[in-house]
Design brief:
The complex is a heterodimer of chains A (911) and B (534). Chain A is of the alpha+beta class and 911 residues long. In chain A, the strands form 7 sheets. In chain A, strands 1, 2, 6, 7, 11, 12, 13, 14, 18 and 19 form a 10-stranded antiparallel β-sheet that branches. An 8-stranded parallel barrel of chain A has the order 23-24-25-28-29-32-33-34, surrounded by 4 helices. In chain A, helix 12 (696-706) crosses helix 13. Chain A is flat, with a radius of gyration of 38 Å. Chain B has 534 residues and is α/β, with parallel strands linked by helices. Chain B contains 18 helices and 10 strands. Chain B has helices at residues 2-9, 43-49, 62-68, 103-116, 127-130, 141-153, 175-183, 216-230, 277-290, 325-353, 377-382, 394-402, 427-440, 458-466, 482-485, 490-501, 505-509, 514-528, and strands at residues 83-87, 120-126, 156-162, 188-190, 196-201, 239-244, 359-363, 406-409, 445-448, 474-477. The chains are: A alpha+beta (911), B alpha/beta (534). Chains A and B meet through helix 4, helix 5, helix 6, helix 7 and strand 30 of A and helix 1, helix 4, helix 6 and helix 15 of B.
């Protein structure tokens, strides 16, 4: 078979880039002739004295050189030095291999034992994926065949198909042959057998004319383009359907129908006669070839002689040039050039390799002057296929006079991989072009002569320069990025270690940033909750249910007197009669939740406060109530409120005077107020509103003073978008949140806005690859500092009746399937709990509980692809979201499905 | 795939813009992050104005420059902007094998910078790499290779001679120096609790034969001479500037914060570093000659620790000991030691490189935390006796002027608005003060940004500092690496480059008197002082 070329190369994965060759001694008579003929290549007298050497330069073809040398008496005249450099590069290229599919239908003599035989003569792990069409079924649906039709070893696929592996057998020519036989009794029930072929090795599917193969068993089927076998009626002129090239619609491989030898049909009742069809198919096979380069120095001419040999069959063109420095800038070396050399884009030469007589492989020899320090090349085969060194030009360093190169100085580990081969010529001319530009820039004398410059430079050239800058920056980025650890990650690792290294084995210490670490938060209100005026009493009724669902923490709305009914424009902080209920009802609801073992968070709005009085200029910046601050408590940098405090330590919220937390008296009063809320109402912790507005260090101060059981801050700013599309890398965004948590000394967690944003894009646009960052970790705050990340998919601002940033509709459960199985402390929105999602949320909560998933659980991402994301958490819970397929790997765990919903699934380890 | 990610998110070109833009400068268009309301004015206008935004470039002898300050139009190569340099990665040459790290990335990066119109690159050259194995055994090969690459691309090279070590990336002092330090830890700076700072040698041993019979100054000198002879083919043609390493992170200061926290975190006041044996004995001698031997027994006892605020202890409080005669005695001595150290290294550099035609630079830190307090403790512990009562930078500027050296001021990306309030930090005011002081001494000022990873508003602040009346010698942008070329950063950088070379119209139209600027800075400086209850 044609892929037998693979015997020449070692497999890529254990292939060493550089070989030092030992003398090969095997002689190979078949190759002798070729080498003789190729000597004409170098018949110019310049080369005569030094063209052949004793040491064979190439591993694979070395024998022929030896033989050649002895055959032709030129040995004595050889004066050249030893091989100074020798290297073999593997080249993987895709080759189309042609083979055939055989489909034969044998109708038994007695019409009782018919047999369908499907065979294929290409190597592979072939599977027949098949089903039948029933006579009474008008549609094109497949059905499972009757039980007695199914050969042993078959696997049923859902309820409509069977997969049967093809068995290996040997044909008369000794080639391997795969076939499967399906025996059946013809009946009127089954009108056709449908199948496709699948190659398990490559995962490729083979169809017929872009559709399923269809073997009719009765002949009243409508004529269909993909019918196989004898056609009824007029159609057949001895069944010669020759060379109709058909494009397949859904397969990677082309199936050509090629001179099928079908027998002429004869009508006979309703049964079709047997037939035999051969269809040719092509399969893409990766062929490992190699190119070897050996360098010698000719002592007489002081030139380098490079021998290139490859075992790639067919015409091979060498594009080559030389460079004078490490920058590998292409330059066309001066003549003499080997025969059949043409100059290519000024900076490179193109030479066709001379094929060897045997038809396997070709070679060429080029000479280069001493002034060059490197030899660059790429290969071209066929029309458009470029072969290069994993995306880079091949480069052969030439020793500077006097030194010897040891091995390959190129550090292959830093080579960027790119699978593009066809762009090589672009790249190559690009880098040459860059150098031209640089030279031009250099030659343009700086000064004010830009008018002249403007005239001479066309817009196109300038544009090319800018594109070139982009390309170079991208190249530099891709290399740096892979080798330099990111700064931010280190910081987090450190802080995480610092904060969480304390005895991980002991039951987790309760701290205000994390609670016990096993908390599950319920946001206990929405934007409309104030409407009834008795929310506290309504919520009280739900306490028992929330507790039984598994919630451990509830977040209540802001309790104070407020200008807006929702509570986020607080005025008199000590007046706790709000639109949600009065202070007694608040105490009551808190007490009730405590009774059911749920901790209560108060929503503390510390960034801003509405004034009750105007100053002498008519500006509302004098506060009332027990905390009767004046304009010294207001930050100075918001002109609307004419504060006399210091400049704000954060962003300003423009609808109300922002509090200047740098003032000692302000901080003292706030601490006192928070402590009063804890004592008087019984709050256990805080949800801190708009913490972007002031420095995290003050939050630490407040947390230290009030010692909450659990706290979480709202640090909400925009993710990064480029041209309206969300960037994959949201490190800057999560860094800002993490910075805030650090500034607060880890004394409070923060809502993981980053994760919400990324989930939006992933679910909405089916871009589940976004759910893994470049380090293969979750891309949100929970990937960096899970214990302080409070994950959520919706809140009163983003959703509810405001809908500022609503989670993709109907995908909420995928969001919860993510947050409720992942580390971080999940927060669930009231509206979702009391909706048709209740059952699903309850199920996910109980999975989280019984598997002990907590804010520090370890997550391992298994899949992060276009249409599916899958991860295993603490090796106990596996989950996937997205329509794509995932099955948790069977290993030590015994996975059983724990819950399944629309586009998500969760497994538990049952062992 | 990687390529395409960038390709889609980066610079888009506006064709129409090129009619009036210079070759090589990038306009960002369609990028939502930048509003595109820029005035695009014709070339003829610029020509007419004849170099309104002219910046003086090549150094003339210092004295001459002083009188030329406002209007110097000497051999200026780039009339339309400050000379922009970009720092190469700290670990450009690897510590382990003296070869170029990521040479392919650097090669691509150099080309990109050249095409962008950047003047040159800054390259840190580490003592711990070149003289790693043994005293006097220099291996310049890695650095020569990179210099060749730079020359080939046609960029200028500014080298920074680093006589200090670095933790990130890990580049220690030369092995043999560290070995000496293990037995003789007094060659390192030491704080009150006895901790050593091992990233550079104490300035107290400058002239003591602690390194195998040689003094550190002698060792630095030999290093400089070896550098000079090894790089002679590049001098002046490619190498246009040399920064002399003066202390921790190359800066003239004491390591008053053993580990400088990143700029966004709150800084404490730091600690005095006068507790190594040699410093203490110098202090003792000084106190004795001053006639008050009791003051020479140690540093001040009532100071806060590294991360504490000035109010944590009495020394730095308003009316605290820093304002007493003891305080003045100690602080004067402490800063004089630093200045003498700077003087000796700068004069070494200027005598060694004086005949090469290459400019010599030194760098001082921008200790901006607590600048709004009267005592300014961060500067005091770092060795700059700069308080509400006294300009501590005058004497520093004098040694730069004396040795014909230029000054590099970092922190040009830091804005007051982005500093934590409670440290009364003011990078902008401190920068204004130091720039004025150095300029008054005729010292050319160069700029640098502080954070490699960007700070909020950093680019705007840099632009502000580079525009208008701030005549900078060069600006050294820190630093090439993954972040630098990332899609989040690189477009902003190209935008910076473009804006530097294309100053906005109103700046050209409204030249601001330098004096005015300085005055207003002083005024606001006053108003920013926060009085403390004693």
């Amino acid at each position: 078979m044609s892929i037998s070329t693979t015997v020449f190369s070692e497999p890529l994965f254990n292939f060493k880039r550089c070989h030092y060759h030992r003398l090969a001694t095997v002689s190979h008579s078949k190759l002798n002739q070729h080498t003789l003929s190729s000597s004409s290549l170098f018949s110019s007298h310049k080369y005569d004295s030094c063209s052949w050497i004793l040491k064979p330069p190439h591993k694979f073809f070395s024998p022929k050189f030896e033989t050649f040398a002895t055959d032709t008496d030129t040995l004595e005249s050889i004066q050249s030095s030893d091989v100074i450099f020798n290297q073999t590069h593997p080249i993987n290229r895709i080759e189309l291999v042609e083979g055939k599919i055989f489909v034969r239908l044998d109708q038994g003599n007695d019409l009782k034992n018919s047999e369908l035989i499907v065979g294929c003569n290409l190597p592979g792990k072939w599977i027949l994926h098949w089903g039948v069409s029933r006579a009474d079924d008008i549609g094109s649906e497949w059905d499972q065949p009757p039980r007695d039709m199914i050969p042993a070893g078959s696997i049923p696929i859902k309820d409509y198909a069977i997969e049967t592996p093809l068995k290996k057998s040997s044909s008369s020519e000794g080639d391997t042959f795969h076939e499967v036989r399906i025996g059946f009794k013809p009946s009127d029930e089954i009108s056709a057998i449908n199948f496709v072929l699948k190659d398990e090795e490559t995962g490729a599917w083979y169809q017929h004319k872009g559709r399923d193969f269809k073997v009719p068993l009765v002949n009243y089927l409508k004529e269909d383009a993909n019918l196989l076998g004898p056609k009824t009626g007029l159609s057949s002129s001895q069944g010669q359907i020759s060379n109709v090239i058909l494009k397949s619609e859904s397969t990677v491989d082309k199936v050509q129908e090629n001179s099928s030898e079908s027998e002429s049909p004869k009508k006979e009742n309703s049964q079709v006669e047997g037939f035999n069809v051969e269809l040719s198919l092509t399969k893409e096979v990766t062929v490992n070839n190699s190119i070897s380069v050996s360098v010698r120095k000719c002592s007489e001419t002081a030139k380098y002689l490079l021998d290139l040999e490859t075992d790639i069959p067919g015409d091979v063109f060498l594009h080559w040039g030389a460079s004078r420095d490490d920058l590998r800038i292409w330059e066309a070396p001066p003549a003499p050039h080997p025969p059949q050399t043409v100059s290519f884009k000024k900076t490179a030469l193109r030479t066709q390799l001379k094929s060897r007589g045997s038809g396997e492989g070709s070679s060429v020899q080029v000479s280069l002057g001493e002034e060059f320090s490197g030899f660059l090349f790429v290969l071209k085969i066929n029309q458009n296929t470029w072969l290069n060194n994993n995306g880079n030009d091949f480069y052969v360093p030439l020793p500077t006079p006097g030194s010897i190169i040891i091995g390959n100085i190129e550090d292959q580990s830093k080579v960027v991989k790119s699978e593009v081969t066809e762009e090589t010529s672009e790249e190559e001319s690009n880098s040459a072009f860059t150098n031209e530009i640089i030279n031009e820039i250099r030659s343009l004398v700086t000064g004010i002569s830009s008018v002249k410059r403007r005239k001479t430079k066309s817009k196109e050239a300038q544009e090319t320069i800018l594109q070139e800058i982009e390309r170079l920056a991208a190249e530099a980025y891709s290399i740096f990025r892979t080798s330099v650890p990111t700064f931010s990650e280190e910081v987090i690792v450190e802080s995480e270690v610092a904060l969480e290294s304390e005895s991980p084995e002991l039951p987790p210490k309760i701290c205000s940033g994390t609670g016990t670490g096993y908390e599950i938060v319920c946001q206990g209100f929405n934007w409309e909750s104030n409407k009834s005026g008795r929310w506290y009493m309504e919520l009280k009724e739900k306490a028992e249910e929330l507790s039984s669902l598994g919630f451990t923490v509830i977040w209540l709305p802001p309790p104070t007197d407020s200008v807006s009914p929702e509570g986020y424009m607080p005025r008199d902080l000590y007046n706790l009669n709000s639109r949600y209920g009065n202070i007694e009802e608040l105490k009551d609801v808190v007490k009730t939740f405590h009774k059911f073992g749920i901790k209560v968070l108060g929503d503390a709005v510390l960034n801003h406060r509405c004034a009750q009085h105007q100053n002498q200029n008519g500006i509302w910046n004098i506060f009332g109530g027990r905390l009767n601050w004046d304009d010294r408590a207001v930050v100075a940098d918001d002109p609307h409120f004419q504060g006399r405090g210091n400049k704000s330590s954060g962003d300003n919220f423009h609808a109300a005077p922002n509090i200047d937390h740098s003032q000692d008296f302000v901080r003292k009063d706030i601490k006192e107020w928070l402590c009063w809320l804890r004592d008087e109402i019984g709050y256990d912790g805080w949800r801190l509103d708009f913490v972007r507005g002031f420095w995290g260090g003050y939050v630490k101060d407040y947390m230290d003073a009030t010692k909450p059981y659990f706290s979480v801050g709202e640090y909400w700013d925009s993710l990064s978008y480029t041209y309206g599309e969300m960037d994959h890398n949201q490190d800057a965004h999560r860094q800002r949140i993490v910075d805030w948590i650090s500034a607060a000394g880890g004394s409070a967690g923060a809502f993981d806005v980053t994760t919400k944003g990324i989930l939006h894009s992933a679910l909405e646009r089916c871009e589940y690859w976004r759910l893994s960052d470049q380090q293969g970790k979750p891309p949100g705050v929970l990937g960096w500092w899970p214990s302080r990340a409070v994950t959520f998919i919706e809140n009163h601002d983003t959703g509810s009746t405001q809908g500022h940033w609503r989670f993709p509709r109907d995908k909420e459960m995928q969001g919860y399937a993510y947050t409720l199985t992942h580390p971080g402390t999940p927060s669930v929105f009231f509206d979702h709990i009391f909706s048709h999602y209740k059952k699903e949320i309850a199920a996910l909560l109980s999975i989280r509980k019984r598997n002990g998933i907590n804010c520090r659980s370890k997550v391992k991402i298994h899949k992060s692809e276009r249409d599916v994301y899958a991860a295993i958490i603490d090796e106990k819970v596996a989950m996937k979201i997205g329509p794509g397929h995932f099955e948790p790997p069977s290993g030590s765990q015994n996975w059983s499905t724990a819950w399944e919903g629309r586009d998500y699934k969760i497994w538990e380890d049952a062992s | 795939m990687e390529l395409s990610v960038i390709g889609s998110s980066q610079v888009k070109l506006g064709r129409t813009d090129f009619a009036c833009r210079e070759f090589g400068y990038v306009i960002l268009k369609n990028n939502s992050r930048f509003s595109n309301g820029r005035v695009c004015f014709g070339q003829n206008l610029r020509l007419k104005k004849g170099g309104m935004g002219l910046k003086a470039i090549h150094v003339e002898p210092i004295r001459e420059m002083k009188k030329n300050l406002s209007g110097s139009r000497t051999r200026s190569k780039q009339v339309d902007g400050v000379r922009l340099f970009v720092g190469l990665p700290q670990d450009t040459v690897s510590h382990d094998c003296n070869s170029i790290n990521h040479s392919k990335a650097i090669a691509a990066g150099l080309k990109a910078l050249k095409l962008l119109g950047v003047e040159g690159v800054e390259l840190p050259i580490w003592w711990g790499i070149v003289e790693k194995e043994a005293m006097g055994k220099y291996d310049w090969s890695g650095y020569l290779a990179i210099a060749e690459m730079i020359q080939e691309v046609g960029l200028k090279l500014h080298v920074s001679l680093c006589f200090h070590g670095s933790k990130k990336p890990n580049i220690p002092l030369p092995k043999w120096v560290s070995e000496i330090g293990e037995s003789e830890s007094s060659i390192f700076f030491t704080d009150r609790s006895g901790q050593h700072y091992k990233e550079c040698l104490s300035l107290a041993v400058d002239n003591l034969p602690v390194l195998n019979g040689k003094t550190p100054v002698q060792v630095y000198q030999s290093f400089c001479e070896s550098f000079k002879s090894s790089f002679s083919p590049f001098m002046e043609s490619t190498i246009t500037g040399i920064s002399m390493g003066l202390g921790p992170d190359g800066e003239l200061r004491y390591p008053s914060h053993h580990e400088l926290p990143s700029n966004r975190k709150t800084q404490g006041v730091g600690e005095f570093q006068c507790y190594d044996q040699n410093m203490l004995s110098l202090l003792k001698q000084h106190a004795e000659s001053y006639g008050n031997p009791l003051w020479g027994l140690g540093g001040p006892h009532d100071v806060p620790t590294y991360d504490q605020s000035p109010y944590a202890s009495s020394f730095f409080k308003d009316g605290g000991s820093w304002e007493s005669s003891y305080g003045d005695f100690f602080l004067s001595w402490y800063s004089a030691q630093l200045i003498a150290h700077g003087d000796s290294l700068l004069s070494l550099a200027s005598s060694t490189f004086g005949d090469t035609g290459v400019s010599i630079y030194g760098k001082i830190p921008l200790m901006h935390a607590w600048y709004g307090t009267r005592s300014r403790p961060s500067e005091l512990t770092a060795g700059f006796y700069n308080t509400a009562n006294r300009d501590g930078y005058e004497q520093v500027a004098e040694i730069f002027a004396k040795n014909s050296c230029k000054i590099i001021l970092p922190g040009m990306d830091l804005s007051d608005a982005n500093q934590p309030n409670e440290t009364h930090s003011s990078p902008e005011l401190l920068l204004a003060q130091t720039m004025t002081t150095f300029r008054n001494q005729g010292v050319k000022v160069s700029g640098q940004n502080s954070s490699e990873f960007g700070v909020p508003g950093g680019f705007e602040q840099i632009k502000k500092n580079l525009s208008g009346d701030n005549v900078l010698d060069l600006f050294s942008y820190q630093r090439m690496g993954a972040y630098f070329f990332s899609p989040e950063h690189f477009p902003s950088f190209t935008e910076l480059v473009r804006s530097l070379n294309q100053p906005k119209l109103h700046l050209d139209d409204l030249p601001i008197e330098e004096e005015e600027g300085a005055e207003s800075a002083v005024m606001s400086q006053e108003s920013n002082v926060s009085m403390q209850a004693a």
